[in-house]
Each structure stands twice: as structure tokens, then as C-alpha cells.
Amino acid sequence: MEMTEALKTMETLEGIQGEEVVNNFEAEIKKLIPTAGTLTLSEREREILYRPIDETRVEIRPDGLIFLPWTEYQTRLKDVFGLSWMLLPVGMPKQHGDLILWTFYLAIRGKLCGCGIGEQQYRANNAQMSWGDAVEGAKSNALTRLCKSIGLFTDLWRPAFVNEWKERYAEKYWDVQKGKFLWRKKPIESVHVQHTETGTSGRFPYGEAYERFSRQPERYTQTGEEAKPSGNGRTSPEELMEKIRSTATLENLKDVWKTYYHYLEAFSPEDKDNILVAKDRRKQEFIAKSNERGFFNGRK
């Protein structure tokens, strides 16, 4: 009897302490409310934060929903803000049916930048996912939603982008066991075939040249021409920047990027960022010109 009473007393004390923690947290969050919407960015920070999506990193679920792994969102925030951002959890995660729900605030440089609820499906009989895994999944989901609320990777929710990406990078296939069509990402070789296509799908239009390109994609352009690095065997940041600036069409830009992007691994972080910004700017210039031509061609 005494043991039972002692346990009840401990539970009561823990409950009171928990309420105090929640109340203190809410009080601290209220102090941050006036900072909401006040975060300022330099022009360079804005360029890096809102760089267009690297389409090759996008993934697709069997039901056809495209997404970016949570690591892409985390990396983008880190590239811009370093460690000056944080997900602030509202209490502990809660289970609602087979869903784990967890609310977070996003704070950047001491400024309140959003509030979002992350969710993750959890079933106790699933040996592939522990409770801890599900909780982390809910946290990662909250991160992606919070990043969406501040404008990161919003193309993922634009129908035009989704349809174009699926056409280029994904395919439907018949799942015999489930008896329906599902989606999957195409093998990278298949994507290269489409980019070099001249009217026949699934074939190698450039024969031996394309086979060489497939075996060593870092050395050959889409037309099978061998890339010509600088005298020391590598392309310098300045040379790659000039190649990007001298591109004449969007397809030409894509060709240059696919041929030389792997050199970025050897560049300094600053050179890498400068090149990525230059590439994205050039891409937007081509897109703007294309839209402009379409507008004038459509006028009567």
C-alpha cells in the first residue's frame, strides 16, 4: 500500500514538473513572437538559400509523389546559417492512432520563423522501425514542412515542375504482386539516353561514342565529345565559370554541367557556391528568354 502511494506521489510530481516545463517553454516562445518575420538576409545568403532544386537529387514514391530527402533541407540551412538555426520541440512526441505527431518551432538567428507539425506512421509490430526511428521521422517531416513555409524548394509543389520532372526522371511500371502501376526513378543511364535522343526512344543514337560516355560520364559530353580539362588534368573554377557563362542555350548549359559538375568536389566552398550561383542564374536567364519568346509568339 505504501509503495503504491509513493508511486502515485512520484507520478504527480513528475506531472507538475512537466507542466512547469511546458509553461516556461510557452513563455519563452511568446518572447520570440515579436521577432517573427524580421529575419534579414544578405543578397548572397538569399541566392544560396533559394538556389533552384538539383533535379537529380529529387526522389519519387511508388504512389507518384516526388520529394527531397530531409538532408537536403538541413544542408541548405547549414550552408546559409551554419549552426545559427534550431528546431525547438513543443513537449514530447504524441501518438495518435498509428501516427507519431510532434510540433516544432523553427528559430533562425534568434528569430521565430515558423511552427509546424511533423508526422510519421508507426506500427509496433514493424521490426524495421523502432519508436525512436518513428520519432526521428516525425522530426524530419517537421523540418521539411517548416522549410517549405519559408520558401525552400517550392517547385516540388508546382504541377508544371512535377510533370516535367516525372517525364524526364521517372517511369511507371507494373507491380505483379500488387496488381497495379507504380512509380520509380529511372536508372541514370536511361536519363542520359533520353538527353541524347534523336527520335528513337531507348536506343543509343551515338553508338560507340555514347557507350564511351556511359562508361565514363565525367569525361564525355552528351554528344560523346571528350571533355578537355586544363593543363593539369583538371578544370579550374575560373575555367568552369567561363564555360557556364559562354553557354548559348539551356541544353548547352545542361551538357556543360553534366560534364564538369564533379569537379566541384575539389573546389573550395566559396568557389563551389559561386559556380552554383552562376549556373542557376544562367539557367534562369534561358528560362526567362524562353518565356518571353512564347509570350510574343502568342500575341496577335
UniProtKB/TrEMBL annotation:
Please identify the protein, giving its name as recorded.
Uncharacterized protein
| Coiled coil region boundaries | none
GO molecular function (one): single-stranded DNA binding
Per the record, the domain of life is: Bacteria
Keyword Signal assigned to the entry: answer is: no
Under PANTHER family, the record lists:
MITOCHONDRIAL GENOME MAINTENANCE PROTEIN MGM101 (PTHR31404)
UniProt keyword annotation of RNA-binding present: no
* Organism, scientific name: Kuenenia stuttgartiensis
Segments for region (Disordered) = 215-239
Protein keywords: DNA damage, DNA repair, DNA-binding, Transit peptide
Mind listing the GO biological process terms from this record? interstrand cross-link repair; recombinational repair
